[in-house]
Amino acid sequence: MTAHPGGSRVTELSWRRAVLVCGWLRTYTGAKELRMLAEADERARAAPLARILVIDDEPRILRFVVRGLQADGYSADSADTGTDGLRKALQGQYDLVILDLLMPGLDGASVLHRLVAERPRQAVMVLSCLTATATKVRCLEAGAEDYLAKPFSMDELLARVRARLRVAAGRPVTSLVAGRLRLDLIRREADSGAGPVPLAEREFLLLRELMQRPDQIVSKQRLLSAVWRFHFDPGSNVVDVYVSRLRAKLGAATIATVRGEGYRIVVP
């Protein structure tokens, strides 16, 4: 072979360029991956946490379950009596209720029946020391979606919770409930206990906005933006007019005015 003059110099320069290009590509790819990871993390933080209510009269188990759920990234509330648990379940908007059966006073079976009667779409998982097949069948036929016997492992509980939440996430939301007030999103009717009442377009949109945040104050500015699609006009009384119309149809105590702040749905 005949060596070309300066050939080794060309080879060395080509090798250096290749090293620089590879280094740049690694830096670019690494930066891109970091951006993607940061964006995914930001989306995870922005996504609303699934809300879970745990009802159990045993303090040790209650703390164990709540801490396990929180460590797995869920928002978990608790109640140590059936009465308190039923009240919280009906007043709040929970993605899942984990329910013990053997409790003094209002037992878990009664809570299950009343909760499913008030909120047919509420996902409920029974967590009980009762292992008889007949008990499991009764609970599942009464409306519970899962039954886990005690003692249990946290890994299995969390796996079942994730499975229940996946199923619930695939269901279309057809109604909103706040206490005794129910809003049918399909028929656009509201029922405060005296029977369904049809709503006009803006009445429906206003009530839906309020019921998505039960017992929370919603500002007039937010309502104007969400329902009428325009920015806050301090001189406009259109929200007051439509709140009055809803009160006339559903009861004066249904919507409370918080002076200087806005309105909220009253959950009895």
Structure notes:
The protein is α/β, with parallel strands linked by helices and 268 residues long. The protein has two domains: 51-169, Response regulator (Rossmann fold, 3-Layer(aba) Sandwich), CATH 3.40.50.2300; 175-265, Arc Repressor Mutant, subunit A (Orthogonal Bundle), CATH 1.10.10. It has helices at 7-46, 59-71, 82-91, 108-118, 133-142, 154-169, 201-211, 220-228, 238-250; strands at residues 51-55, 75-79, 96-99, 124-128, 146-149, 175-178, 181-184, 189-191, 197-198, 255-258, 262-265. The strands form three sheets. Strands 2-1-3-4-5 form a five-stranded parallel beta sheet, sandwiched between helices. The chain has a four-stranded antiparallel beta sheet with strand order 6-7-8-9, covered by helices on one side. The radius of gyration is 28 Å and the shape is elongated. Mean pLDDT is 82; it is low at 1-5, 18-22, 24-30 and 36-47.
